[in-house]
Amino acid sequence: MIGEKKLKLLAEQVLLLSTADETEVLLWVSENGLTRFANSHIHQNVSWEDMSISVRVIFGKKIGVAGGNRLDPEGLEKIVRNAEAIARLQKEDPHFVSLPHPEKLPVMETDYFLDTVEERSRKVATIISAAKSKKIVASGSFQSGLSELAIANSHGIWAYHISSSADLSTILLGETSTGFAGQVGKTASEIDAENVVKVALDKVELSKNPRDVAPGEWEILLEPQAVNELITFFSWLGPNARIYHEQASFLSEKLGKKVANEMVTIYDDPLNKDAFPIPFDFEGYPKQKTTIIEKGILKSLVYDSYHAAQFNAKNTGHALPAPNTSGPIPLHLAIAPGTTSKPNMVKKIKKGLLITRLWYIRVLNPRSLSLTGMTRDGLFSIEDGEITGGVKNMRFNQSIPEMLNNIVTIENKLTPLSSFESEIGINRMPSLHVKDWTFSSGTLF
Length: 445
What we know:
Blueprint: H1 4-17, E1 22-38, E2 41-59, E3 62-68, H2 73-89, H3 117-133, E4 137-153, E5 158-173, E6 178-185, H4 193-206, E7 216-222, H5 224-237, H6 241-245, E8 266-268, E9 290-294, E10 297-298, H7 305-310, E11 333-335, H8 342-347, E12 351-365, E13 370-383, E14 386-390, E15 394-399, H9 400-405, E16 407-410, E17 415-418, E18 426-429, E19 432-442
Parallel strand pairs: 7-12
Antiparallel strand pairs: 1-2, 1-4, 2-3, 4-5, 5-6, 7-19, 8-9, 8-11, 9-10, 12-13, 13-14, 13-15, 15-19, 16-19, 17-18
């Protein structure tokens, strides 16, 4: 950990070195640890420290970005001069107006922890021991880290935030079945390894000797992990202002219109204490809660300073690090909880499937946000309100807008899950009961 005082001195040095009309400095420091395990043995413990600096300079409307990790005076000057040289070679960007000016940042309590390899290893040992007792093979990873993010610009912005994260996940392998479970937290002490391995073991046991079922339209129960994997694509290709105004989003031209079932409310809440809060974006602009879909109606998009200026909109604090060609993306999404517990959701399904997680998801059509992918590590049949056994994995072809309109019930609690990088973004998702989900083919496993 370097600390706010030293990072601010580094940023001030860079601003003094720059000859540009406007300058922005982004500093990112991290201390990381990773414990990996396979074949029921820890096979890797690694740790690393890193610090990177990125400098964006503007001459008029010409923009250049350069970065590196040399923090000595010579290294800092080289980064600044590289950014300036790149800017001078650029064409003017007619849509650029200005880097952000200082705004009051939200005040929040800062709590952070740096986990040790011993703490991670003890949690992993719990998983391995429980799996071995059932003659099941354990694999997975446990990563934890401490991050400092600091941003300054020539208009007077100074923003600093420190946070920590821990992310444990495991896949357990039985003779004919697998099971997945995981948990995120701010520190290893928050991770309940006993519960994680219990969930994964239950999935392995229940999905033994999976049977074939026919592809087609099914009533399904998506667990939070699966919901999160789908909503990640929504965040990239849905309310993103760049995608929206380029007419490439399924939401394009639908502000104020119905886009989902009326029970669906989706919001970005970066200040929520359960979402690993962060008070500002990667331009040092304050973040805020943004309701995207409210009771099925598209209420707002997300913007950074560039796209807010281009489209005469309000900056919502969703900038990513420059140079950013992706556009603004929400990193703390939540689907508002419903009123039904997951066990009661299962009871309402006469014939359907429960999906633990998805993988190998690819976009078929960004304009309709149609995705394809496969189920993994726990697909189960539901018959007359009970989970009855394992089913062989299947491939799906599904439109996210159709899914949002076909939701039957939403779970009454939210589960925190990694959205992009857990240090900067945590989504919170419920289980979803969805009708008319399309499976296109089966598999052999």
